[in-house]
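Justification of resources, computational component.

The compute hours requested in this renewal are based largely on the per-chain cost of generating structure records like the one below. Each record pairs the submitted sequence with a full structure-token output. That output is archived, and it is also reused by downstream analysis tasks.
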Amino acid sequence: MMKFLFFMVFMVPLSFVKKSFWLNQCLYFFLIFLFLSEISLSWGYSNISYFWGVDLLSYMMILLSLWICSLMIMASSGIYRSEYFSGLFMFTLLMLLISLYCTFASMNLFVFYMFFEFSLIPTLVLIIGWGYQPERIQAGVYLLFYTLVASLPMMVSIFYFYSMNGSLDFFFFFYDVGFFMFYLCMTMVFLVKMPMYFVHLWLPKAHVEAPVSGSMILAGVMLKLGGYGMMRLMQVMIPVAVKVNLIFIVIGLVGGFYVSLICLRQSDVKALIAYSSVAHMGLVLGGIMTLNNWGMSGAFAMMVAHGLCSSGLFCLANMSYERLGSRSLYLNKGLINLMPSLSLWWFLFSSSNMAAPPSLNLLGEIMLINSLVTWSFVCMIFLSLISFFSAAYSLFLYSYSQHGKMFSGLYSFSMGDVREFLLLFMHWFPLNVLVLKGEFMTLWS
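The structure output for this chain reads:
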């Protein structure tokens, strides 16, 4: 695992070399190719070097991080054309990738916590440095303080757990902690990061103000840190979790329903996609909290699917924004008249977002429904509402933006170029092909 880390560290000087923007992207893809050769298909750790190693969960999360980061460069051609601190942008992106790689590959809880917190800084720099409006400062402060307020209690609980367990290595987690305060301190930071309803307000703000690359990494990978952390740590809190998880499942499902209704009232395309992320992660939260095999596998599938689908939708929103200069749904109308080829992509990603076959979202949703209904039949009410309204807001997004009377006069008649179609294809193809190897998502033991 160290070789991939060295690969990324030695790419730092290349970030500042002029005219090396696309060379960096080629190296990211080469890194993905190397990483695929180290494939890990078991739930035990493999490829161990020092305190880095991967099992299937961390392997897929690292692969998703590498994939989304390489596509972020492809989506950010505006920074390349304007040469607006492009070297600093590449450096920030690389620091973000290194921190995510170290977060997912670490086999030690404290190292995981350290890089989990460090990943916040490059994200903040992306939002404040390349965001669109003055409100990006406020969005950055929201992001920073929501995470920090919840993360400091976690650090104290990590020290307590070390004194009780004697080790912070995931492999040696034998001590079960049986009191509520530890459970709350340990999970709160992950609930904020997911984000759970009630602590989700930072997410729409951050998405609306972030550049396309910031939105892609937030939706694609950063939200998955919360689910990943809970999957790793829930095993030491089972005595409390079986009593308390009911509360969080209810918040996840009822919150997911409320947020689905909020989506139907959005006029900003990015805000709509951001709120839909909250609804999907509410399902993931419910699946993890049921503590059963279906729930964990479904949450894993849904995290990977949501990372690709949501990131692709943000790319589409950015393509309209670059041509029109606005993200308002009232101005983004009748686009099928101007760019019918892009309307196909809007339809494909909207249908994937509402879990239509053959997308990986469908596999994840079926597993999560299985998990939650076997846990309690009452969950069926809110699951059916969330499923229905996710179709409603996805079709609302598609039909409102593509059909209707065209708002002419502001639109730049620039057709989609090959880079944009390739970018969308590289989101959509793995999203709809990974479902053929669905057994990888169910190897939980």
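The CA atoms of residues 309 and 353 lie 6 Å apart. The chain has a mean pLDDT of 91.
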